[in-house]
Amino acid sequence: MRCLSGLVAALIGLGVGPALACAVPTSIEIRNETRQPVRQLTIDDDSPAPGTASRVNRLPPAGLAPGGAVTLTMPSCIGLYVLTAVFADGTEQRHPGLDARRVRGLSLR
To answer: Are 98 and 76 in contact (CB under 8 A)?
Structure first.
């Protein structure tokens, strides 16, 4: 039992403990301050390995209307992410470098 306690203390001292899991998922509120609907929102790793981008739409089929807001859960509570919004006319807005530890909201303009 002493060895186990020592090992746990050593891991915490090395900073390994907090990196094992997120206690609370990080969420971000996205506000659509443009004049057109958003039909797709994706949140991906900001530096994915080639061929690993997920591009999973995080919006319901109705999309996000102008003036509307939606709260999304980040993939992890740590890391840098890029949010991509695709509008009804096909144009895209990219917001790279979103730090999951700090960002809590983003306005599309």
So the answer is: no
Task: Give the tokens for residue 63.
Answer: 């999309």
How far is Cα of residue 8 from the mean position of the Cα atoms in its chain? Answer: 30
Structure tokens at 31: 């506000």
Query: Residues 6 or more apart from 72 whose CB is under 8 A from it?
Result: 27, 28, 30, 41, 43, 58
Whether this model's pTM surpasses 0.90: no
Give the angle 48-52-102 at the CA atoms, nearest 5°.
Answer: 40
Separation of alpha carbons 59 and 48, rounded Å: 22
Number of neighbours of residue 31 by Cβ within 10 angstroms: 15
pLDDT tens digits, 40-83 = 999 998 876 655 556 688 898 889 999 999 999 988 888 999 99
